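User: Here's a chain of 467 residues. Predict its fold as tokens.
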Amino acid sequence: MLSELNQLQAADALGHFGCGANPGACPELSQSDLLTLQQVMVSKTNKSCSNMDADDVAIRGTILFADCGTQSCLDQIPPRSLYEAVSRLVEAVKDREESVDMREGQWKKSALSDADKQGLIDIVTCGLLKALDARARYRAQTPSSTPATRRKRSTAASQQVTCEDILILDTKSNVLTVQQINDLNTTDFDNCAETLGTATGWSLEQKAALIGKAKQTWGQQSSNWTKELIQRMGSIAQGLSESEITSLANLDLDVLSTLGQYTGWTLDQLKSGFSSWLKKYINNNISAITGSHLQQIGDFACGATAQQISSISTSAFKDALNKIGTLYSCSAEQLEAWAALGLQALGSVTEWTYAQSATFDVLYAGLSGSSLSLLSSTQLSMISLDVFVRIKPTAFSALTVSQMASLSTAQALSVTDDQLSVLNPAQKAQLRALGATISDPSGAPGVSVTASTLAATWTAVWLIMAY
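Assistant: Prediction complete.
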């Protein structure tokens, strides 16, 4: 796909390839593609990894992560260069991920396989950890600003992750290893807990390490933690058990509002938080929940049972639709309950305003087949790919052939095997016409314009035009 790179006469598009100047330029490139780019950039610029300065590192961005491993390009870059460039590398990673989320999660099906996606996640984690290691090595090589008569810098201390490192990583602090979290001194942890708490995507092991460090820093009894402390914790609180969440003494609306803005809670944790708040502050009166409450508690609204959701007032639903429509953490059963409440509040889908249709968002996955069969082409176009794949097969099968004709190619390519299994021949034929790969019942291969084919074509076009 990237053979055109061998004809490059200059490397003036490094910023584009590095996803720094134009983060949307290469979100579909796999690890092997990035490695090819890295090799070309080195040969075309006569700039080896061992003599790159901070600007060279920053402009190449995530290309440098391609061969992350033993004896990689990152290992050869002078520690000072990575020390000075790491903040720009982090920003490049965040910009690229934001671009990928926008393209892939909404309207463009990824050209990469799940294995390729995981490979990219792994090399980004590896790359940022190597950059942190370079910062530690540079600190070890640099004389301490503290007078030697007062304190000598220890090698062990210089190799630890510091609060300064965490501030630079920001929301990418989730690349820290369990060992690095365990080795954080309590002062650095306390000073940077709020930054750590803004990161999401922690593994179970990382969450356990974080909450362990929190208890070491602030006391083993989480029930004694103050309201302000819990709010500072953010996603770190996801390391608490269900019983610990229930025992928090200050789980009021302000705290729930802060914690509810982060994804990554288990349904059991959400249930514990919601139930505790409902009991302590709403007197278990589910009908007393207002739209303002739902707006503020965020993902903890997914702690309500289907039966509880059905008892929430329609006026509260209307007032909080823009927030309820973003409850991606809810289970299928909960989404069905929210969607049913939505129909009570807004009427049939044919009666919805454009704004209501646009903000229904993930709740489309909870609609029954009878409601889905009434959706207009405009409403269907509003269903993002993340939501599209969550529609129950039995409900999905209710879409008419004419409705399927209005689907986008990306939507057609995203149809799951379970959804496909319940479709009739006419429905399958329509999806095939849109580019989905479906075997023809006659035995002839179906027309296939796959996502990877489209992406490869456009990437090649872009590469040619860039030069």
